[in-house]
């Protein structure tokens, strides 16, 4: 409803502007930040807020690398020219908001990408939305993100789509009936992921043996894991970012807990293997990006990324890469870097072919994606058959 009202409002504003222009109403151009270079190529600046320093910095590194690679590829096509203004949020909501304020005060910036964590995004997006600046989350997976407002979009796989797929496959394959749960109770993603896990477990009639919680940056999980071990579950559902999740798995294996873990989006990172080593074996996640896929688009993306950055991409890099193509496509169709025109055409994104498949926004600015369930085996993410 709110969307409709806003849409009506913006249509009326455009009609008013056209009328004023027709009446010779003076200074009525809407192209405050519309930009066409000497070469005739439409250009736009996008602000990026990313988790680049701190314990989860590998998320932000993958995202900004994905964006930079897409920027090169888009600019090389010569249809539009994109400039990125990148700010570090350090994974902190207050720092993300400072970065957003800096970006919002620059009238030459058309739209924003990020921040990385849902916790940060929930702090930033309502402000950005109020200021009429389009914002797109490439990694923010919690329920309710696009519903923040008309200027808010995401191309990240929703937790409510990925987690049930992972749990269903894990249960189907292991025959599990009893699950223990653990999650971080001070982060939007880990809490949101937990809610989806609990709902799914209940819907599937699984017995929940215990629900344990931890806090950001915790290093000792002995108490929680002892409790889990004593309840003798078949599976552990863990809603964690990689930095805590990998430590939990490492300590669990050291305590002799060998059962599989099912994680949400936060756990789907090569960093889980990097940090936990062999202890990460047995982690099951669902993802829209499978690195070992033989899909030529994925193979080409992997090669380009590895050549540029000397390491393999992950889901976060792939989603960010597609995100900038979504922005470039909206910019082309808008024919202007004006924020309002850009928002209108962004909302109309339809069947855009990305490396993660065909992309459209639904009417709230959310996305439906196909996911593949993966497990870590012998230190590698492989398809979970
Ligand atoms: C969120 C996430 C994180 C794992 C992004 C890095 O999905 O906070 O929504």
Polypeptide structure, described:
This protein has 385 residues and is an alpha/beta fold. It has two domains: 31-156 and 297-359, Response regulator (Rossmann fold), CATH 3.40.50; 160-287, Rossmann fold (3-Layer(aba) Sandwich), CATH 3.40.50.2300. Helices cover 44% and strands 19% of the residues. It is built from twelve helices and 14 strands. The chain has helices at 2-22, 57-77, 93-104, 118-130, 159-174, 188-203, 222-230, 242-254, 270-276, 296-309, 315-334, 339-347; strands at residues 42-50, 80-88, 109-113, 135-137, 152-154, 178-184, 207-214, 235-239, 261-263, 283-287, 352-354, 357-359, 372-377, 380-383. The strands form three sheets. A seven-stranded mixed beta sheet has the order 7-6-8-9-10-13-14, with helices on both faces. Strands 2-1-3-4-5 form a five-stranded parallel beta sheet, sandwiched between helices. A two-stranded antiparallel sheet has the order 11-12. Helix 8 crosses helix 9. The chain is globular and about 70 Å long. The protein starts with a helix and ends with a strand. Residues 1-33 have low confidence and may be disordered. The chain binds (3S)-3-methyl-2-oxopentanoic acid. (3S)-3-methyl-2-oxopentanoic acid (1QQ) binds next to loops. (3S)-3-methyl-2-oxopentanoic acid is lined by residues 59, 116-118, 139-142, 189, 241, 265-266.
